[in-house]
């Protein structure tokens, strides 16, 4: 064997080959099996069943109701849910026409009222939440959802020309002169604000003295803290702005510097903040009142609704919802049912895979399933040959 010439080294020795990169060691999966969805879904359904919903009743448009006559509500107009499946609610309604009603700013006008009376067969622990619900009202329409001016809501005194350049179309303001006056607040959302008002539930049949007692509820604490940060006291002068068209009943002569007709403080008006958070579906509920301290004792209760908000024009309905909540939120069975369904599908698939493995198992490490080791159909099988790739002969190689 000839010696290797000086300056020439074998670079293709066995030691010169790089070893294959080390693959990360596979660790055992610690993810829970998919069937865990089933018991989680059961817990969600149980939590939902603990939410009491004594009354979910429609507020009628007063057509077909006799004035001042208390009549039973049809089954289609009222719904309820209790822990005891045998518990039921007996609800009645009546209307009052041309009575004195008080608006949010304290102004009294003649209007209509709807009186709802219902029974609660079980005590309701705090917190007790009072919602209003609308159907067929599309707050998620793109043009509607964008129709506001965030700077104006924050308190900036935006001029008429500024508002016309915003997304408040088509409700910018009025232009009696060259300067113009912007609406405050401008836009479609504010103009269409839900303006029915509700009395706190009145307990009609308390024990002992039998005198009616009010279950006090408040409209404070109904808005999110993050929503409150979007609003501020306005820097406008009352003479520089006008109320939106649908607010004319509450402000018949426009805004004044003081008194009940002064511009509203949007930073403290939580009912307005709740309405301005637009809903994603045409049927939605918004929180109107709450009681976080006292339980609602079983009995007969009465609620008076000052009816201002029209629903016939857009073929919708309105109703009230009195409910409790748990750590999982309000009453909603959808999530629990969905989890149980996913868990059930996983159990069925697992059973199918297990049966397939037991009845027709596959050998582990069976090289016959490797396609590159099979002879082509057009050629006879036989020992395979391999040809190494050539390389340049180096000096000293024989």
TrEMBL record:
Family: Belongs to the CDC50/LEM3 family.
Principal subcellular localisation of the protein: membrane
Biased composition (Basic and acidic residues): 1-27
Membrane topology designation: Multi-pass membrane protein
Location in the cell: Membrane
Name of the protein in question: LEM3/CDC50 family protein
Top-level taxon: Eukaryota
Stretch list, region Disordered: 1-34, 370-398
Gene Ontology cellular-component annotations: endoplasmic reticulum; Golgi apparatus; plasma membrane
Keywords of this entry: Membrane, Transmembrane, Transmembrane helix
Organism: Metarhizium acridum (strain CQMa 102)
Any matching Pfam family: CDC50
GO BP annotation list: phospholipid translocation
TM segment ranges: 334-359
């Amino acid at each position: 064997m000839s010696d290797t010439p000086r300056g020439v080294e074998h670079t293709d020795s066995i030691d010169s080959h790089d070893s294959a990169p080390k693959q990360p060691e596979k660790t055992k999966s610690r993810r829970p099996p998919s069937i865990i969805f089933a018991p989680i879904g059961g817990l969600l359904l149980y939590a939902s069943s603990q939410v009491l919903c004594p009354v979910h009743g429609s507020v009628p448009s007063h057509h077909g109701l006799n004035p001042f006559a208390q009549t039973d509500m049809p089954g289609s107009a009222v719904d309820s849910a209790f822990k005891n499946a045998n518990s039921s609610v007996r609800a009645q309604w009546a209307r009052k026409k041309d009575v004195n009603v008080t608006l949010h700013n304290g102004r009294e006008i003649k209007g209509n009222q709807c009186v709802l009376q219902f029974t609660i067969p079980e005590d309701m622990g705090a917190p007790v939440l009072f919602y209003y619900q609308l159907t067929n009202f599309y707050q998620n329409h793109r043009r509607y959802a964008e129709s506001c001016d965030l700077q104006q809501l924050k308190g900036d005194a935006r001029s008429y020309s500024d508002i016309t350049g915003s997304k408040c179309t088509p409700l910018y303001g009025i232009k009696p002169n060259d300067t113009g006056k912007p609406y405050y607040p401008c836009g479609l959302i504010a103009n269409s604000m839900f303006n029915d008002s509700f009395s706190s539930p009145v307990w009609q049949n308390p024990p002992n003295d039998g005198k009616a007692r009010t279950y006090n509820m408040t409209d404070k604490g109904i808005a999110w803290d993050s929503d409150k940060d979007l609003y501020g006291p306005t820097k406008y002068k009352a003479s520089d702005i006008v109320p939106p068209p649908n607010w004319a009943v509450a402000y018949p002569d426009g805004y004044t510097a003081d008194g009940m007709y002064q511009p509203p403080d949007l930073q403290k008006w939580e009912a307005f903040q709740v309405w301005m958070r637009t809903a994603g579906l045409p049927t939605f509920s918004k929180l109107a009142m709450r009681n976080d301290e006292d339980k609602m004792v079983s009995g007969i209760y009465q609620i008076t609704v000052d009816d201002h908000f029209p629903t016939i024009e857009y073929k919708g309905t309105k109703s009230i919802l009195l409910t409790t909540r748990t750590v999982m939120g309000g009453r909603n069975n959808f999530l629990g049912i969905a989890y149980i369904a996913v868990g059930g599908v996983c159990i069925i698939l697992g059973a199918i895979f297990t049966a397939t493995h037991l009845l027709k198992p596959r050998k582990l490490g069976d090289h016959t399933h490797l396609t590159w080791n099979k002879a082509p159909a057009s050629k006879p099988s036989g020992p395979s040959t391999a040809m190494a790739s050539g390389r340049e002969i180096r000096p000293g190689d024989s």
